[in-house]
Every structure is written in structure tokens, then in C-alpha cells.
Design a protein that fits this description.
The protein is mainly β. The chain has a single domain, classed as Beta Barrel (Porin). The chain is 7% helix and 51% strand. It has three helices and 17 strands. It has helices spanning 2-16, 117-120, 246-249, and strands spanning 25-37, 43-47, 51-61, 64-74, 93-104, 107-115, 155-163, 170-177, 186-193, 197-205, 223-232, 236-244, 251-261, 266-277, 285-295, 300-310, 325-335. Strands 1-3-4-5-6-7-8-9-10-11-12-13-14-15-16-17 form a 16-stranded antiparallel beta barrel. β7 (155-163) and β8 form a beta hairpin. It is globular and about 65 Å long. It starts with a helix and ends with a strand. Mean pLDDT is 88; it is low at 1-17 and 210-220.
Length: 336
Amino acid sequence: MMKKSLLAIAVAATMAAPAVMAAPTVYGNIHLTILDLDSNDNLDLTSNTSAIGVKGSEDLGDGLKAIYKAEFEINPADGGFSSVDDGTSGNAFTQRDAFVGLKGGMGVLKIGTFSSNYKQKGGKVDSLYRTPVEGRGFIHTMSRLHNGRAINRGRMTNAVQYSSPKVGGFQLVANTTFSNSEDETVGFGFRYQTKAILAFVDWIDAQPGTAVSGNGATNATESAVKVGGKFKTKAFHVALQYEDAEDFTGFNYIHANAGFNINKDNSIQATIGQASHITNSNADTNSFALAYIHALSKMTIMYVAFGDVSDDITAADAGFMSKENDGLALGIRKKF
């Protein structure tokens, strides 16, 4: 009888406990562009990191929360088929961030797949991030350490990351992989941020990749460091980033970005930069991008953008591929 009473009390207590699991948030964006490249005679409809995801948290009490996120890239341009018009299947969903973790007064701990400390602030200093004229892509003013998953890229897998609480605007971020390898990817960064100012320094040492000639690196040790910052007001912003990434790519990078808000719905954004090769100055690239952005709402924008990349590669530069190109893009992005 006593056991039955205790069981009834336990069940009643469980049923009476308040719900602490917040409803998951479904979010995403569809981002499409009509792109005209000088290197291509035809117009191309492309997707720019269109994605869908779910995220949420659970209150564990005493100021501690369990957090989670699962995000996947989608391609509404080709409908999940390959870009070659042969009817073969492509990747309808490509995994992006997917992690579980804990958040509390001592900071945030994440376990799974997510952006490395080195990648995290790349989008903060590039207002044309995730467009066809972004610095980490077409105009080549940032290294591939700001890109997605793969060896020597920006999204870490099999990883653990710790972010400290912000104290006086300062924060530490550290991460490492656990990939059953003698050579793990390890990185850390320091940030200072206020409403108007962002400053950061990041270092990463990654798993050795395959050494290649030409545009790639030949060093056995592969580490990179970058410093950058941003100043913003309601009317404008300016940002700058320098990367010493020659161990990974053979290049060091300077990326400068600025934006001017004409009014609340219209702005002009610009990037200028250079990638300097460590052994062949003919491979140095000088680039710029310019865009006009119109906000149809808080969740929907349209834009027109132009980018140009130049170098001095000739047939005599064996092993090097020229990046010289220019492109015009008309895009629309809808968030949800």
C-alpha cells in the first residue's frame, strides 16, 4: 500500500511539473541569383546558401539550458538534381550546423558540427557574405577557412567548442576536434564587442591536407591567424580583416568592406581586397565588389551586384590557374 501511495505521489508530481521545453523554432531562407560571369557565355540561376533548420532549448533549472540546432542547405535552383542536365540526382540536403550543447553562467559548450572560431567572424566583416560576390568565394579576399565542411575548411565536424561568458565586452572561444586522429584541428580566438565596435584575433591549426603546387600551399605545418574589426553606426559601417593563411592556400589576404545606408530600405555595399601569393606575384589577385540592396521588408531583400577579380597569370606560370573574372548578379533572398 505504501509503495502504491509513493508511486501515485511521484506520478502526480511529474504531471504537475511545469513545462520547461521550449517549442522548436523552424527557420531558413531561400536565396536565388541570376548570374552573368565573363567566363561563361550563358546566364545561370544559382542558389546562395539557401537553408532550412530547426533550433531550440530546454530550461534545466539553476540558470542552465540544453541547446540544439540542426540546419541543412537546400538548392531550390536545381531542385536537388545535379547541375549537369542528365537527370541524375544531386544532394537535396547538405548538412550544415548540427549540434547539442549546454548554456549557462559559465558560458556555452557545443558538441557536433559547427563553424570554427576562425570562420565565425568572417560574415561580420563582409556585408556581401553569402552572395555571389562574397569575399570567401568569387572575389578571393578571404581564405577557404571561411567555407563549409571538408579538410581545411571553416565548418568543424566531430568537434567540441567552448565560448566563455562576455566580460566587459571580451570573450574567449576555443574548439578542437575528436576525429580519432593524431592530428586534430585546434583553434582559439579572442573577441571584443560593443554596440558600435567589433575586434577579434583568431588562430587555427588544422589536420594536414595534401600538399599541392600552384595556388595551394606546400608547407607541412598548416596553421593560420587573422585579425580584424568593424565599426558601425546607423548610417554606415567600415570593416577590415587580414589573414596570414599561406600554410593552407599559399596566399595571405586583405579584405576591406564598407556600407552606407541611404535610408532604412536602401543601401550601398562595397568590398575591396587583395590575395598575395608567397612565391609568385603573378598569382596575386586584386578584387572589388559593389552592390545596391533594397529591402522589401525585414525578411526580404533584392539586390544587384558586380564583382571583378584580376591577376597576371600567363602560360609561363605552370601549375597556376588564373582567377581573373568579372560577374553581374541580380538576387532575391527571403528569410522565414
